[in-house]
Amino acid sequence: MLLDRYSGIAPKGDLLLLRKLGERLQGKTFLHVNSTRSGGGVAEILQRMIPLILDLGITARWEVIEGDDRFFDITKKMHNALQGNPERFTEAMWSHHYEVNRHNAEHLDLGADAVLIHDPQPAPLIEFRKGGRWFWRCHIDVSNPLKEVRDALQRYCARYDAAVFSVARFAQALPISEFIIAPSIDPLSDKNREMDDSEIRAVLERLGIPADRPMILQVSRFDRFKDPIGVIQAYRMVKRYNDCILVLAGSPATDDPEGAAVLDEVTAYASDDRDIYVLLLPPFSDLDINALQRSATVIFQKSLKEGFGLTVSEAMWKGKPVIGGAVGGIPLQIVHGVTGFLVHSAEGAAFRARQFLNNPGMVKRMGEKGKDYVRKNFLITRQLRDYLSVWYREENGRKEVMEL
Prior knowledge:
Number of strands: 12
Largest sheet: 6 strands, parallel
Shape: globular
Strand content: 5-15%
Radius of gyration: 21 Å
Strand order of the largest sheet: 2-1-3-4-5-6
Helix content: 40-55%
């Protein structure tokens, strides 16, 4: 079984429960629906999770909704508003959101024993339900949403059987069951597998990244909520005292129409510094990201809003403590002073970066603790265990999985 490859890596209890759940759910169908097949954490997790579900004897499918530029402009504004940005919505925008989903429902096979709808883009598909258990999965930091947008979206969310959030304080006052399930990384994927020094050197040479000085790295989509400008400001403060380079690396996502504009802003802000490398990598550049994370001396995830931030767990899995913004799902991963540092400003990020650059022993100790923390809490086997547990519970009269 594919699951056997995780023996000795993932906790034994997770693998045992997964096999038990697989026995009970064998032969059933599990459908996932989101809005992009590449770019971003949701697509990345589904690419690795679908084969694991199939390996358990459950028929898994992954469908992606299609939309025009106007649809993705609306859903990006929706994403921003749910994370607290002021945005103006009209009834025509909500109507277009619904109509694009109605059109998708005419073409997609929505029949399954369990259906997991990811994020707001396909949320109206609940209107076209064809049986089975339906779950809405929110990956966004909705701790401080724009009330008007949250209320409008809840007309759909409240019709699901249950909702799933990444962090407890993201949960909403919904008249349905709510569950907390953190996202995860796959330790066997190209992005997280071990790499030898020759592989890493080859990647750096191909990308034109010098290896003769310490590297500060942030990997993320080019999104203002990831605060790439704040990262450059922090790097410039560090640079006054420690010679180093900065790498900002990210890939485009088909459902993010703002990415190109943010990339232009970042490139313009960095243009006068030859030690800043802004990399727009093609989708699925997993080995490149892996090599960069393993080469970095300091890794930032200095987000201003963050649903979870898979790059934090990715870096920690490679034995690198992370300096992250104290927002959203990042504090779930970074235990301040143990597996990294939480910061609230560019000045704070620069201060902690200098600590890492000047104290390799501390980096090693914190990195070892971070890797073990990820192994216990943020591997894909744990996330799949949680999804199947919720499905089993809802389908069996809320029977607890401990009875397995």
